[in-house]
Prior knowledge:
The chain is of the alpha+beta class and 278 residues long. The chain folds into two domains: 4-126, MutM-like, N-terminal (N-terminal domain of MutM-like DNA repair proteins); 143-276, Helicase, Ruva Protein, domain 3, CATH 1.10.8. 28% of the residues lie in helices and 23% in strands. The chain has helices at residues 4-18, 41-45, 143-151, 157-163, 172-182, 195-220, 273-276; strands spanning 23-28, 34-35, 50-56, 59-64, 68-73, 78-83, 93-99, 104-109, 115-120, 249-254, 257-262. A hairpin with a 3-residue loop joins strand 4 (59-64) and strand 5. Helix 5 crosses helix 6 (195-220). It is elongated. The model has no long low-confidence stretch (mean pLDDT 94). The site of zinc ion has 7 residues, from loops.
Amino acid sequence: MPEAPELEVAREFLAERITGQSIAHAEVIKPSVLRPLAAALVPDVVGRTVAGLERRGKFLLLRLSDDRALVVNPMLTGGFQYCPPSERLFKKTCLLFGLSNGRQLRYLDDRQMGRVYYVRGSRIDEVPQIAAQGPDVLTPMALEEFRQRLRGFRGEIKGVLTRGRVVSGIGNAYADEILFEARIYPYRKCGQLTEDETRRLHAAARSVAAEAVKAVRERTGDRIHVKNRDFLKVHNRGGEPCPRCDGRISEVTANRRITSYCRRCQPGLLVMPTLTGR
Ligand SMILES: [Zn+2]
Protein backbone atom coordinates (compact mmCIF):
# COMPACT_ATOMS: atom_id res chain seq x y z
CA MET A 1 0.00 0.00 0.00
CA PRO A 2 2.35 2.75 0.99
CA GLU A 3 3.83 4.61 -1.92
CA ALA A 4 5.91 7.78 -1.75
CA PRO A 5 3.06 10.08 -0.59
CA GLU A 6 1.97 7.89 2.33
CA LEU A 7 5.54 7.14 3.37
CA GLU A 8 6.49 10.80 3.16
CA VAL A 9 3.63 11.76 5.46
CA ALA A 10 4.59 8.98 7.89
CA ARG A 11 8.20 10.16 7.77
CA GLU A 12 7.28 13.78 8.56
CA PHE A 13 4.97 12.68 11.35
CA LEU A 14 7.48 10.35 12.98
CA ALA A 15 10.50 12.63 12.48
CA GLU A 16 8.78 15.29 14.53
CA ARG A 17 7.89 12.92 17.35
CA ILE A 18 10.60 10.32 17.69
CA THR A 19 13.84 12.02 16.65
CA GLY A 20 16.00 12.14 19.75
CA GLN A 21 13.98 9.49 21.57
CA SER A 22 15.73 6.37 22.70
CA ILE A 23 14.49 2.82 22.36
CA ALA A 24 13.61 1.55 25.83
CA HIS A 25 12.48 -1.88 24.75
CA ALA A 26 11.78 -3.85 21.61
CA GLU A 27 9.77 -6.94 20.74
CA VAL A 28 9.89 -9.10 17.65
CA ILE A 29 6.41 -10.59 17.33
CA LYS A 30 6.69 -11.92 13.78
CA PRO A 31 10.33 -12.61 12.99
CA SER A 32 9.67 -13.47 9.33
CA VAL A 33 9.71 -9.77 8.38
CA LEU A 34 13.13 -9.18 9.89
CA ARG A 35 16.41 -9.36 7.97
CA PRO A 36 18.97 -10.69 8.38
CA LEU A 37 16.95 -13.61 9.67
CA ALA A 38 19.33 -14.20 12.53
CA ALA A 39 19.52 -10.52 13.47
CA ALA A 40 19.97 -10.13 17.19
CA LEU A 41 17.75 -7.08 17.01
CA VAL A 42 16.46 -6.75 20.54
CA PRO A 43 19.71 -6.80 22.56
CA ASP A 44 21.46 -4.57 20.05
CA VAL A 45 18.76 -1.99 19.44
CA VAL A 46 17.71 -1.25 23.01
CA GLY A 47 19.35 1.90 24.33
CA ARG A 48 19.96 3.41 20.90
CA THR A 49 18.60 6.82 20.00
CA VAL A 50 16.63 7.70 16.86
CA ALA A 51 18.94 10.08 15.01
CA GLY A 52 16.58 10.84 12.13
CA LEU A 53 14.21 9.54 9.50
CA GLU A 54 14.68 9.42 5.76
CA ARG A 55 12.70 8.16 2.84
CA ARG A 56 14.16 6.74 -0.34
CA GLY A 57 11.46 5.91 -2.86
CA LYS A 58 9.34 3.23 -1.24
CA PHE A 59 11.74 2.65 1.69
CA LEU A 60 11.59 4.34 5.08
CA LEU A 61 14.84 4.56 7.05
CA LEU A 62 15.29 5.12 10.76
CA ARG A 63 18.82 6.15 11.52
CA LEU A 64 19.89 5.08 14.98
CA SER A 65 22.83 6.12 17.10
CA ASP A 66 26.23 4.45 16.74
CA ASP A 67 26.01 3.36 13.14
CA ARG A 68 22.76 1.40 13.02
CA ALA A 69 19.66 1.76 10.88
CA LEU A 70 16.28 0.15 10.49
CA VAL A 71 15.43 0.09 6.81
CA VAL A 72 11.81 -0.71 6.05
CA ASN A 73 10.51 -1.88 2.69
CA PRO A 74 6.78 -2.14 3.41
CA MET A 75 5.93 -3.62 -0.01
CA LEU A 76 2.16 -3.96 -0.45
CA THR A 77 0.95 -4.57 3.06
CA GLY A 78 3.34 -2.96 5.55
CA GLY A 79 2.73 0.17 7.59
CA PHE A 80 3.43 1.97 10.85
CA GLN A 81 1.51 2.78 13.97
CA TYR A 82 2.46 5.34 16.61
CA CYS A 83 0.43 5.08 19.79
CA PRO A 84 0.39 4.73 23.56
CA PRO A 85 1.21 1.23 24.83
CA SER A 86 -2.37 0.85 26.03
CA GLU A 87 -3.67 0.82 22.47
CA ARG A 88 -4.92 -2.57 21.35
CA LEU A 89 -2.34 -4.62 19.54
CA PHE A 90 -3.45 -5.44 16.00
CA LYS A 91 -2.99 -9.04 14.94
CA LYS A 92 -0.84 -7.74 12.09
CA THR A 93 1.74 -6.18 14.44
CA CYS A 94 5.16 -7.63 13.62
CA LEU A 95 7.63 -5.43 15.52
CA LEU A 96 7.22 -3.10 18.44
CA PHE A 97 9.55 -0.44 19.82
CA GLY A 98 8.87 1.20 23.20
CA LEU A 99 10.29 4.73 23.20
CA SER A 100 11.61 6.93 25.99
CA ASN A 101 8.64 9.32 25.51
CA GLY A 102 6.31 6.54 26.63
CA ARG A 103 4.94 5.89 23.14
CA GLN A 104 5.30 2.89 20.89
CA LEU A 105 6.28 2.63 17.27
CA ARG A 106 4.88 -0.52 15.70
CA TYR A 107 5.48 -2.10 12.33
CA LEU A 108 2.29 -3.67 10.98
CA ASP A 109 2.05 -6.05 8.07
CA ASP A 110 -1.06 -8.02 7.19
CA ARG A 111 0.58 -10.56 4.96
CA GLN A 112 4.16 -10.08 6.11
CA MET A 113 5.27 -9.26 2.61
CA GLY A 114 7.35 -6.29 3.75
CA ARG A 115 10.87 -6.47 5.14
CA VAL A 116 12.62 -4.68 7.97
CA TYR A 117 16.40 -4.71 7.72
CA TYR A 118 18.53 -4.04 10.74
CA VAL A 119 21.89 -2.96 9.37
CA ARG A 120 24.95 -0.82 9.94
CA GLY A 121 24.22 2.77 8.98
CA SER A 122 27.17 2.70 6.62
CA ARG A 123 25.80 -0.33 4.75
CA ILE A 124 22.29 0.81 3.86
CA ASP A 125 23.03 0.57 0.15
CA GLU A 126 23.41 -3.19 0.54
CA VAL A 127 19.73 -3.59 1.40
CA PRO A 128 18.10 -5.40 -1.54
CA GLN A 129 16.61 -3.08 -4.18
CA ILE A 130 17.33 0.16 -2.38
CA ALA A 131 20.27 1.28 -4.47
CA ALA A 132 18.70 0.25 -7.78
CA GLN A 133 15.90 2.79 -7.41
CA GLY A 134 15.76 5.86 -9.62
CA PRO A 135 15.51 9.41 -8.24
CA ASP A 136 12.57 9.99 -5.92
CA VAL A 137 9.28 11.08 -7.48
CA LEU A 138 9.00 13.98 -5.02
CA THR A 139 12.41 15.36 -5.93
CA PRO A 140 12.36 17.59 -9.00
CA MET A 141 13.95 15.95 -12.04
CA ALA A 142 14.75 17.79 -15.26
CA LEU A 143 12.71 16.75 -18.28
CA GLU A 144 15.88 15.84 -20.13
CA GLU A 145 17.01 13.44 -17.40
CA PHE A 146 13.54 11.89 -17.29
CA ARG A 147 13.64 11.36 -21.04
CA GLN A 148 17.12 9.81 -20.85
CA ARG A 149 16.12 7.46 -18.08
CA LEU A 150 12.99 6.32 -19.93
CA ARG A 151 15.06 5.51 -22.96
CA GLY A 152 16.49 2.39 -21.36
CA PHE A 153 13.09 0.72 -21.11
CA ARG A 154 10.93 -1.12 -23.62
CA GLY A 155 7.94 -2.37 -21.62
CA GLU A 156 4.50 -0.99 -20.95
CA ILE A 157 4.63 2.39 -19.34
CA LYS A 158 2.72 1.49 -16.19
CA GLY A 159 5.04 -1.42 -15.44
CA VAL A 160 8.07 0.78 -16.06
CA LEU A 161 6.78 3.41 -13.64
CA THR A 162 6.02 0.96 -10.84
CA ARG A 163 9.37 -0.80 -11.17
CA GLY A 164 11.00 2.33 -9.75
CA ARG A 165 14.08 2.55 -11.95
CA VAL A 166 13.13 5.65 -13.91
CA VAL A 167 11.68 7.38 -10.90
CA SER A 168 11.06 5.79 -7.49
CA GLY A 169 8.18 5.81 -5.01
CA ILE A 170 5.36 5.07 -7.46
CA GLY A 171 3.27 1.93 -7.00
CA ASN A 172 0.12 0.59 -8.54
CA ALA A 173 -2.25 3.28 -7.29
CA TYR A 174 -0.28 6.41 -8.12
CA ALA A 175 0.85 4.99 -11.45
CA ASP A 176 -2.84 4.89 -12.44
CA GLU A 177 -3.34 8.43 -11.18
CA ILE A 178 -0.26 9.76 -12.98
CA LEU A 179 -1.19 8.12 -16.29
CA PHE A 180 -4.73 9.47 -16.02
CA GLU A 181 -3.41 12.95 -15.36
CA ALA A 182 -1.02 12.65 -18.32
CA ARG A 183 -3.77 11.12 -20.51
CA ILE A 184 -1.62 8.14 -21.43
CA TYR A 185 -2.86 4.60 -22.01
CA PRO A 186 -1.32 2.42 -19.25
CA TYR A 187 -0.29 -0.35 -21.66
CA ARG A 188 1.43 1.94 -24.10
CA LYS A 189 4.97 0.84 -24.84
CA CYS A 190 7.57 3.07 -23.35
CA GLY A 191 9.49 3.42 -26.60
CA GLN A 192 6.37 4.65 -28.41
CA LEU A 193 5.73 7.66 -26.22
CA THR A 194 5.66 10.87 -28.24
CA GLU A 195 7.63 13.91 -27.23
CA ASP A 196 4.48 15.53 -25.91
CA GLU A 197 3.42 12.44 -23.94
CA THR A 198 6.83 12.25 -22.31
CA ARG A 199 6.51 15.88 -21.29
CA ARG A 200 3.03 15.31 -19.87
CA LEU A 201 4.15 12.21 -18.01
CA HIS A 202 7.11 14.03 -16.50
CA ALA A 203 4.90 16.86 -15.26
CA ALA A 204 2.14 14.55 -14.02
CA ALA A 205 4.47 12.31 -11.99
CA ARG A 206 5.65 15.21 -9.90
CA SER A 207 2.34 17.06 -9.58
CA VAL A 208 0.24 13.99 -8.75
CA ALA A 209 2.72 12.85 -6.10
CA ALA A 210 3.05 16.32 -4.57
CA GLU A 211 -0.73 16.83 -4.47
CA ALA A 212 -1.15 13.39 -2.92
CA VAL A 213 1.23 14.30 -0.09
CA LYS A 214 -1.02 17.25 0.75
CA ALA A 215 -4.19 15.16 0.53
CA VAL A 216 -2.78 12.34 2.65
CA ARG A 217 -1.38 14.78 5.21
CA GLU A 218 -4.77 16.47 5.62
CA ARG A 219 -6.52 13.18 6.18
CA THR A 220 -3.99 11.33 8.33
CA GLY A 221 -3.76 13.22 11.62
CA ASP A 222 -2.05 10.94 14.12
CA ARG A 223 -3.41 7.77 12.53
CA ILE A 224 -0.55 6.94 10.21
CA HIS A 225 -1.67 3.30 10.10
CA VAL A 226 -4.96 4.15 8.39
CA LYS A 227 -5.19 4.20 4.62
CA ASN A 228 -6.52 7.50 3.22
CA ARG A 229 -7.12 7.29 -0.49
CA ASP A 230 -10.62 8.59 -1.01
CA PHE A 231 -9.15 11.44 -3.10
CA LEU A 232 -7.85 9.21 -5.90
CA LYS A 233 -9.49 9.99 -9.24
CA VAL A 234 -9.36 6.67 -11.09
CA HIS A 235 -7.52 3.96 -9.18
CA ASN A 236 -9.96 1.34 -7.88
CA ARG A 237 -12.88 3.28 -9.29
CA GLY A 238 -13.82 0.93 -12.12
CA GLY A 239 -17.37 1.60 -13.38
CA GLU A 240 -17.55 5.07 -11.87
CA PRO A 241 -17.83 8.16 -14.08
CA CYS A 242 -14.58 9.65 -15.30
CA PRO A 243 -13.93 12.96 -13.49
CA ARG A 244 -12.83 14.53 -16.80
CA CYS A 245 -15.16 13.27 -19.53
CA ASP A 246 -18.50 11.50 -19.92
CA GLY A 247 -16.90 8.08 -20.03
CA ARG A 248 -16.66 5.43 -17.37
CA ILE A 249 -13.51 4.20 -15.73
CA SER A 250 -12.32 0.81 -16.97
CA GLU A 251 -10.67 -1.74 -14.78
CA VAL A 252 -8.32 -4.50 -15.86
CA THR A 253 -6.82 -7.06 -13.50
CA ALA A 254 -3.52 -8.69 -14.38
CA ASN A 255 -1.21 -10.53 -11.99
CA ARG A 256 -3.65 -9.67 -9.20
CA ARG A 257 -2.99 -5.97 -9.78
CA ILE A 258 -5.80 -3.66 -10.74
CA THR A 259 -5.31 -1.07 -13.45
CA SER A 260 -7.95 1.64 -13.67
CA TYR A 261 -8.08 4.12 -16.54
CA CYS A 262 -10.46 6.00 -18.80
CA ARG A 263 -10.63 4.64 -22.33
CA ARG A 264 -11.70 7.99 -23.66
CA CYS A 265 -9.11 10.17 -21.94
CA GLN A 266 -6.36 7.56 -22.25
CA PRO A 267 -6.97 5.96 -25.63
CA GLY A 268 -4.92 3.01 -26.76
CA LEU A 269 -5.12 -0.31 -28.50
CA LEU A 270 -6.41 -2.85 -26.02
CA VAL A 271 -4.25 -5.82 -26.99
CA MET A 272 -5.30 -8.17 -24.22
CA PRO A 273 -3.07 -6.66 -21.57
CA THR A 274 -3.65 -9.68 -19.35
CA LEU A 275 -1.76 -11.82 -21.86
CA THR A 276 1.04 -9.48 -22.83
CA GLY A 277 2.20 -9.47 -19.20
CA ARG A 278 4.79 -6.92 -18.22
ZN1 LIG B 1 -12.30 10.32 -19.25
